[in-house]
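Example 284, ligand adenosine-5'-triphosphate.
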Amino acid sequence: MTAPALQKSSPVAGQVVLDATDVTMRFGGLVAVNKVNFSVNEGEIVGLIGPNGAGKTTFFNCLTGLYKPTSGTVRYLGKTLKPQPVAVTRAGVARTFQNIRLFGNMSALENVMVGRYCRTSAGVLTSILHGPRYRREEKETVEKSKELLSFVGLTDVGDHLARNLNYGDQRRLEIARALATEPGLLLLDEPTAGMNPQETGEATDLIFAIRERGVSVVVIEHDMRFIFRLCDRVTCLVRGETLVEGTPAQVQSDERVIEAYIGSGPTHANKPATEKSLDEEAGA
Ligand SMILES: Nc1ncnc2c1ncn2[C@@H]1O[C@H](COP(=O)(O)OP(=O)(O)OP(=O)(O)O)[C@@H](O)[C@H]1O
């Protein structure tokens, strides 16, 4: 991947972009998300962590209209979001999934172009007739999609079928497709799952570059080193509730967070890194 290696900018205390209030999601008797309050400011990268089953993906699904929360409201730029995926995407919130969801038999370029279509205005009839407006928009869609492929470092594989791309490239392609919807906020569900350390480092640079484009980011991840290096703020969910919210330094040193992970029987990857282990890795 050839995404530009950017330095982390200082957190920007911009306006509130996303504002979720008292979001609750029940599945029968199970309360997967319980009265969670969560906000994202313009220019921020916010991490969402928590042991397996804490409710992170369910919360993402509530934010993006895949689930209609049992109660609570989700506002984007001050407007309440209709709990429907298309409405949420059109409003400016895009996401990727824990399990990659690409169109495997379409080329990488076509996958990105699919993302653009929620921003084009040519109606069905115009598209069928291939009128001038359709042709102009189609040309623009191809150009913008190519630019996004280049941005995520996939210039050379635009004509490859998505299913033939390696795993890391498929993850990057999902991000390019999400960016094609022109979001102001991007939600990434475990973007580095299955990546090696080099790919994870490249993903970090890519997310910083996304922020530089004016897109705020929320990221769910179990890789604590990745989260604590990347994020301006981190929220830790446990059993559907917010346990701790703060800066990476505050969260990684919070005994309650460490306890929550130990209580859940952590693997090494799941266990929050301490300040010391991060420093050691950085060669300090
Ligand atoms: N569609 C569903 N129906 C019933 N229960 C569900 C559903 N989706 C999630 N759950 C339950 O809700 C709880 C939270 O699950 P969720 O996948 O949101 O956790 P998570 O924090 O994302 O976990 P992981 O880190 O393992 O992905 C779990 O107990 C899960 O079994």
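Summary: Residues 103-166 form one domain.
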